Structure formats: structure tokens, C-alpha cells
């Protein structure tokens, strides 16, 4: 004689930690939307006509909103993902473990560097 | 002496011998001061209110790991969790009995089978623990062959696994883990953390045997790094880190098996 | 041979792709969506078709496909698969995995086709 409550599919609504976990997992939903947009983009690079169609699509207000959500999702994902790295693969040199904070900061520096590189690339250095 | 402050507490009650089908909540009024722990509350209830209340405890100092309960839905050690932290935000010194909303809800550990009141079936965790052989395996060390050198260890070798050796087998991490809740076959945080602890031990030669368990779908691969297990662990073990370091080890071990036909740490290879 | 593959499965592969895709999602995707999804449509920066096309037709185009489209797709597939399991949706097990990782493979194939025909 015993009692075992079964978990329902809504267990993650129980408290904040689980909700934040589900939010982290849900960051891939706007990512999928972005990937579809990008896939359309690379196909449109075949001629100018289709490229300007893609440009019009990318400038649609709803699409801009979707991509703004995707940017937020990417940053939230980054914030949750970077702190995991030092825990999954701690870097040990001799008897010294690299401080987790340093590894997290390094990853954010990479995000910033890529952003600057991207801006420099598309503007051709004319900033 | 001033009157002691009091508050209301809801305690989950379940007694199959009385014919209960499912747990019900019992509300009790308890006195508390700044040093009253959740375990003290339970002890007060058993002595003063209802002697039929069942719960586990032993050391009262966060060492034996037997007093795990859910407090307001979060896994806690009863002896390490204090009433003051739940009533504080409502204003210290107020008489909380004035409004009879319970400050605390105490339930048995989630994801385990409840046996009676706050007592759960810990075998559901212990069988997983047993499966990963959480002890040093060293074929060379026999009672008749005591080689001192085998068991000496440098501080650096100790540092590799020390964090994961602090586990007290309280099972809070299992009550925090939704993957264990969804799939009771999942080996789970503490057992994998202890497997990792012995795998990292320079005196151990049993990695191959443990990897057989960790490599399975119900081993490290059931984990999605929810990470709540590490948040609730009273000993700072960080079992989530151990499980995910275990994924790296498992990936290595399976790759080596694929190419060499025998896995990492295989003493027979 | 039996002994060699006994107990092996593809989880390490999916997890590896998920992790690599996670790094790309975190490090590269913010910039890409910032530039192409916001700054360009809002007219803050200008992207010239010819520059973009010639850049894309080089080997860099394939690298872009791999790290900004394909790997993040595998990352998404992995999380969707586990998210469905978490919410107890679908048949679970191999069906969900097949659909999720299959979709990521289709996305990868489309990306390669686009680059090849550009
Ligand atoms: S890992 Fe922490 S929470 Fe889990 S059983 Fe050990 S001490 Fe308890
Ligand atoms: S009574 Fe021993 S850990 Fe709480």
C-alpha cells in the first residue's frame, strides 16, 4: 500500500525554476522562425529580383517583430548556455581551475567580437 | 517572557492502514522562534498535537540525509530549513496565527512513492545508487595483499573528485529532477554524481563497469540539464555538472568502444 | 563486431550537434539576426546584393550555412524533441527523434542545395 502521484505534462508550471527552464527550451521556437527566414534568404541570392522580394519580406512589420523576439531568445539562450560551459567542461591547467566567471566573460566577449565583425563586414568598413 | 510567535503549517498526511487512498492536508498551529527548524515543527506536532505523525530524521545537523521533505514545493532538509525564512517576509514579530494562511506546506519528497505521511520509499533511489557501484574497485587490492602505495593520493588527485564526494544520499536532487519524475528508470543525479566521483578517483579501476550503466538511455542521456538538482543540493555537490561531465565521458567511452571494440577504462583490454 | 557495437546508440552524436549548435546560436545568431533581421530592414545599414552574393558564393557561404543554419537547426531539433517528452506530447521515443532530427537534416540539405545552385 502506497501512493505515487503521477507527473502531468504541466509539471513545469509548479515554480519559477521550472518555468525558466521551459523558457530556455522554448528559445528554439523563434530560432526556427529565423532559420526559415535565412533559408529563404540564401535561396533568394540567385538573382536580384528574388533578393528584393526577400528584402520586402524581411521588412514586414510582423517579421521584424518575430526577429526581435528571436534576438531576445538568442541572448537569453546565451545567458543560460554560457554558465553551463565551465560546469560541463571545467578547464584545468595543472592544479589550477580556470574561474567560471572568466570563462563566461570570455564567451560574451566572443558575442561582442562577432557583432562588430558582422557590422564591419556588411558596411564594408564604412562606419 | 513574551508569548512565543505562532504560525500555521500544513502537513501532508497519508496512512494506508487507516484506509487512505491519497494524502490529505492537516493544518496545525505551531510556536516558533528564530531557531525553529522545519524538523522542530514536525517534532512539536508529534509530541503535542498528533503522535501518529510519521517522518524520518536522525542527526539534526544535515549529515545523515534522512529528513528530506518538500517545503512549499521545494525539496529541503527539515533540519537545515528554518521557519523564520518563510514568515520573515510577512513582517517579523507579527502574530501569524492572526491570519490562518499557512506559512509552510510540508509534503513528502516528490517523485517517490509515499509510504506514510512524510515517509517515502527511498529504495527507488538506492537501487540506482547500488547499480553504479559507488565504491573503489581495485582488483589488485586484496585483504592479503595490503599495498600501501595503492591507496596513497596527492592533494591534487583528491581535488579532482572531492566536490562530488560530499553527497549525503538525501535524495533531494531526485525530488527536484523532472526527468526522474517522468522516468523512474533514470539513474538520476546523485547516483551519477557518485559514479563520476569514483571514476575520477586515482585509486579506482572500475570505470568500465560504471560506464556500462551511464552509457544507456536511462543513464546520463536522460538528463536535459534542468539544473534544479544542483540548486536544492544541501551539500554543494552540483550533481548536474557531474551528469553532464558524464555525457562527455560517455561519448568518449562509446567512441573508443566503436573503434577499439572495448570501452574506456576496460581492465580486460 | 557484435561486441563492438553492443549498447551503442546515437545520443552522443545528437548531443554533440546540439552543443555545437548551442554555441553557434549563442555566439553567432545574435549578430546575424541583429544585422539582417533588424538593422537592414529598418534602414540602419545597407546590404548590397552583389557583395553579399559574391561572398555567399565563396566557401564562406558554405561555412555560413553550416554554422548559422544547419547546426542551430540540430540544436533546435534536440530541444524540441526533449521538450515534447517533457510535456508528455507525442509518441515519445524514436518517432519524435526521427521527425525532429530528420527535419534538421532536411534543413541542412536545403542549405547545401541553395549554396550549390547559387
Ligand atoms: S547530490 Fe546533493 S541533493 Fe543529491 S543526494 Fe547527494 S547531497 Fe542530496
Ligand atoms: S536529520 Fe540528519 S540530515 Fe536532517
UniProtKB/TrEMBL annotation, chain A:
Protein's UniProt name: Fumarate reductase subunit C
Entry keywords, A to Z: Cell membrane, Membrane, Transmembrane, Transmembrane helix
Matching Pfam families: Fumarate_red_C
Superkingdom field: Bacteria
Organism, scientific name: Aliidiomarina maris
A GO term from the CC aspect: membrane
InterPro entries with a match to the protein in the record: Fumarate_red_C, SQR/QFR_C/D
SUPFAM superfamilies (UniProt xref): Fumarate reductase respiratory complex transmembrane subunits
Membrane-spanning parts: 21-43, 63-86, 98-122
UniProtKB/TrEMBL annotation, chain B:
Pfam families recorded: Fer2_3, Fer4_8
InterPro entries in the cross-refs: 2Fe-2S_ferredoxin-like_sf, 2Fe2S_fd_BS, 4Fe4S_Fe-S-bd, 4Fe4S_Fe_S_CS, Beta-grasp_dom_sf, Helical_ferredxn, SDH/FRD_Iron-Sulfur, Succ_DH/fum_Rdtase_Fe-S
BP GO terms, sorted: respiratory electron transport chain; tricarboxylic acid cycle
Protein's UniProt keywords contain Transport: no
Segments forming domain 4Fe-4S ferredoxin-type: 157-187
Similarity remark: Belongs to the succinate dehydrogenase/fumarate reductase iron-sulfur protein family.
Name of the protein described by the UniProt record: succinate dehydrogenase
Protein's organism: Aliidiomarina maris
UniProtKB/TrEMBL annotation, chain C:
Keyword Nucleotide-binding: no
Superkingdom per UniProt: Bacteria
GO cellular component: membrane
Pfam family for this entry, one: Fumarate_red_D
Keywords: Cell membrane, Membrane, Transmembrane, Transmembrane helix
Gene Ontology biological-process entries: fumarate metabolic process
Membrane-crossing segments per the record: 12-39, 59-77, 89-116
Protein name per the record: Fumarate reductase subunit D
Organism encoding this protein: Aliidiomarina maris
Amino acid at each position: 500500500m502506497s501512493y505515487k502521484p503521477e507527473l502531468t505534462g504541466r509539471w513545469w508550471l509548479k515554480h519559477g525554476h521550472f518555468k525558466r527552464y521551459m523558457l530556455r527550451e522554448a528559445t528554439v521556437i523563434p530560432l526556427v522562425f529565423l532559420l526559415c527566414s535565412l533559408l529563404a534568404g540564401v535561396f533568394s541570392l540567385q538573382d536580384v529580383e528574388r533578393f528584393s522580394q526577400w528584402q520586402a519580406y524581411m521588412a514586414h512589420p510582423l517579421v521584424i517583430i518575430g526577429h526581435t523576439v528571436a534576438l531576445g531568445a538568442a541572448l537569453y539562450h546565451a545567458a543560460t548556455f554560457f554558465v553551463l560551459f565551465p560546469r560541463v567542461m571545467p578547464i584545468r591547467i595543472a592544479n589550477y581551475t580556470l574561474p567560471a566567471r572568466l570563462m563566461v566573460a570570455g564567451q560574451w566577449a566572443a558575442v561582442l567580437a562577432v557583432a562588430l565583425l558582422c557590422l564591419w563586414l556588411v558596411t564594408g568598413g564604412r562606419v | 517572557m513574551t508569548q512565543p510567535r505562532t504560525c500555521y503549517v500544513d502537513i501532508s498526511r497519508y496512512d494506508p492502514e487507516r484506509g487512505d487512498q491519497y494524502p490529505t492536508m492537516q493544518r496545525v498551529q505551531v510556536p516558533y522562534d528564530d531557531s525553529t527548524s522545519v524538523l522542530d515543527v514536525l517534532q512539536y506536532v508529534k509530541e503535542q498535537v498528533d503522535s501518529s505523525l510519521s517522518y524520518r530524521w536522525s542527526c539534526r545537523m544535515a549529515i545523515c540525509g534522512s529528513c528530506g521533505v518538500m517545503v512549499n514545493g521545494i525539496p529541503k532538509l527539515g533540519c537545515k530549513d528554518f521557519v523564520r525564512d518563510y514568515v520573515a517576509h510577512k513582517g517579523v514579530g507579527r502574530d501569524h496565527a492572526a491570519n490562518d494562511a499557512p506559512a509552510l506546506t510540508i509534503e513528502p519528497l516528490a517523485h517517490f512513492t509515499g509510504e506514510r505521511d512524510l515517509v517515502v520509499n527511498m529504495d527507488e533511489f538506492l537501487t540506482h545508487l547500488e547499480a553504479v557501484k559507488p565504491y573503489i574497485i581495485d582488483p589488485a587490492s586484496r585483504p592479503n595483499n595490503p599495498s600501501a602505495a595503492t591507496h596513497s593520493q596527492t592533494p591534487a588527485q583528491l581535488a579532482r573528485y572531492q566536490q562530488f564526494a560530499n553527497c549525503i544520499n538525501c535524495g533531494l536532487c531526485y525530488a527536484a529532477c523532472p526527468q526522474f519524475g517522468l522516468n523512474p528508470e533514470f539513474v538520476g543525479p546523485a547516483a551519477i554524481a557518485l559514479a563520476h566521483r569514483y571514476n575520477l578517483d586515482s585509486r579506482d579501476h572500475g570505470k568500465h563497469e560504471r560506464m556500462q550503466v551511464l552509457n544507456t538511455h536511462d543513464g546520463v542521456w536522460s538528463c536535459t540539464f534542468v539544473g534544479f538538482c544542483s540548486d536544492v543540493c544541501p551539500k554543494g555537490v552540483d550533481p548536474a555538472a557531474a551528469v553532464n561531465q558524464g555525457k562527455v565521458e560517455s561519448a568518449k567511452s562509446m567512441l573508443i568502444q566503436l573503434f577499439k571494440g572495448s570501452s574506456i577504462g576496460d581492465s580486460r583490454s | 563486431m557484435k561486441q563492438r557495437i553492443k549498447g551503442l546508440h546515437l545520443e552522443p552524436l545528437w548531443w554533440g550537434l546540439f552543443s555545437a549548435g548551442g554555441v553557434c546560436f549563442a555566439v553567432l545568431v545574435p549578430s546575424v539576426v541583429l544585422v539582417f533581421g533588424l538593422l537592414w530592414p529598418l534602414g540602419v545599414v545597407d546590404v548590397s546584393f552583389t557583395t553579399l552574393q559574391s561572398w555567399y558564393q565563396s566557401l564562406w557561404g558554405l561555412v555560413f550555412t553550416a554554422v548559422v543554419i544547419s547546426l542551430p537547426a540540430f540544436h533546435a531539433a534536440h530541444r524540441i524533441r526533449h521538450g515534447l517528452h517533457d510535456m508528455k506530447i507525442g509518441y515519445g521515443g524514436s518517432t519524435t527523434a526521427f521527425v525532429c532530427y530528420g527535419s534538421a537534416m532536411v534543413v541542412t540539405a536545403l542549405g547545401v542545395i541553395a549554396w550549390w545552385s547559387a
